[in-house]
Amino acid sequence: MNTMLKTTTATLALCIASGSVMAQDATITIESWRSEDQAIWDNVLIPAFQESHPGIEVQFTPTAPTEYNAALNARLEGGTAGDLIVCRPFDGSLALFERGQLADISDLEGLSNFPDFARAAWQTDDASATFCVPMASVIHGFIYNADAFAELGLEEPTTVDEFFAVLDAIQEDGTYTPLAIGSADQWEAATMAYTNIGPTYWGGEAGRQALIEGSAAFTDPEYVAPFEVMERWTDYMGRSYQAQGYTDSQNLFTLGRAAIYPTGSWEISGFNAQADFEMGAFPPPVQAAGDTCYISDHTDIGIGMNAATDNPEAARTFLEWVASPEFAELYTNELPGFFSLSNAEFEVEDPLAQEMISWRQECESTIRVAHQILSRGEPNTWNNMWTVSANVFNDAASPEEAAAALQDGLAAWYAPQQN
Q1: How high is the pLDDT of residue 24?
Q2: Peptide bond before 379: cis, by omega within 30 degrees of 0?
Q3: What's the half-sphere exposure (Cβ side, CA atoms, 13 Å) at 324?
């Protein structure tokens, strides 16, 4: 009797243990728009996860960035989407959660590794539910050809006047196009120009929140001013910049034909591989010496769980790992320029990435002005910002007209701006 009891108990324990292992045996897939990250996921991140979780196979299955939103929505509606969803920040992912397509992961222990502002990009407005683990932010600023600067005897500008003095010196020399940016694709005019330098004028988070609250309008001087500065940029953007697309600007810079590239930290990996000259970076110049420095440190990428996944336990296990200090260090150093939002402390190995992340200590951080709440209606403020920013570059709208178009579009549907 005792022998039978012991045998039965041992067998039950073995079954329970085996069941636990079997519950973790699964293949999970990750949806993403970052197709350029395939090798890093396949060769570094996934093997690191599987070293401690050998029973879970992970497949990274990205879609081209321009097709991601539509393709993901179709797969979610059709029930064929992956187990894990790489999340854009704020309203796009919030809409997926509200449709019941992203799971509530508020009880994930690893979320405590992130500050409030990082979690806010993937929470409901009242912060009662979190639906994606923060992965990384990107920091806006200016990357420059350090060899060209040394050749011309130039130093990094810190004020707007110094910035234009540097542009004048580059223009006068004639060897390099001063600014590598065009307007053909529109989005870079908004992303790498208006929302790059804008926080300097509207005071970062204070100015962004004022628009959300309705106590400020795009037609106020501090929101018009960045367009006025952009209008001045056009004298330094080279011939035919109106026909110059994003990849054209990248090539112009990495081939050593342009001196300064208004951009964000997401370019670092590609530029490291393509440019054969030393590079440096500086944050958006302040209006006057001693002014507060502001950077767009944009919460850019997170990862959540498909609410309809057949593998919720394995998916949550992976999300807990993404929230870990191990992932934070790996991701930041394997993808220089994509900076973990974790509280974990570690060394950033790439010198250009280290330079840009150091701005967090010197400057006040904010996010892209139209990404939270202000682009939920039609016309979409962020998409509208693409158009009006490009129009300023193309001399198709004055700074005042561009700001008025933004304000009219927002006021057409957003109640706090209808006073």
Answers
A1: 57
A2: yes
A3: 14
Identify the structural domains of the chain with CATH numbers, from first to last: 26-136+298-353 (3.40.190.10), 138-297+364-417 (3.40.190.10)
What is the reported pLDDT for 11? Answer: 38
Q: What is the DSSP letter of 397?
A: S
Question: What does the pLDDT read at residue 10?
Answer: 38
d(CA 233, CA 394): 11
Residue 121, pLDDT score: 95
Strand duo 84-87 + 294-305: pairing = antiparallel
What does the radius of gyration of the chain's CA atoms come to, in whole angstroms? 24
* C-alpha span between 196 and 395 (Å, rounded): 20
Here the tokens at position 362 are 């010197």
Residues 188-199 as b or e (16 or more Cβ within 10 Å = b) = bbbbbbbbbbbb
Bin 258: left if φ > 0, else alpha if -120 < ψ < 50, else beta.
beta
CB atoms near residue 258 (< 10 Å): 25
What is the separation of C-alpha 198 from the centre of its chain, rounded to a whole number of angstroms? 17
Distance set, CA 171 to CA 281, 376, 396 (Å): 19, 42, 24
User: What separation in angstroms does the CA of 383 have from each of 185, 203, 245, 375, 390?
Assistant: 12, 22, 17, 8, 11
User: 264-278 burial, b for 16+ CB within 10 Å, e for fewer?
Assistant: bbbbbbebbeebeee
Enumerate long-range contacts of 152-159, CB under 8 Å, 24 or more apart: 152/259, 156/280, 156/282, 157/282, 157/285, 158/282, 158/285, 158/286, 158/289, 159/285, 159/286, 159/287, 159/288, 159/289, 159/291
Tokens of 217: 């309008």
Distances (CA, A) of 151 to 91, 119, 274: 46, 44, 20
Largest CA distance in the chain: 98
Q: Would you state the pLDDT for residue 8?
A: 36
Whole-model pTM over 0.85: yes
Q: Which spans in 190-274 are helix H? A: 195-202, 205-213, 221-233, 246-254, 268-274
User: Which portions of the chain are predicted below pLDDT 70?
Assistant: 1-24
Provide the token pair at 200.
């300097």
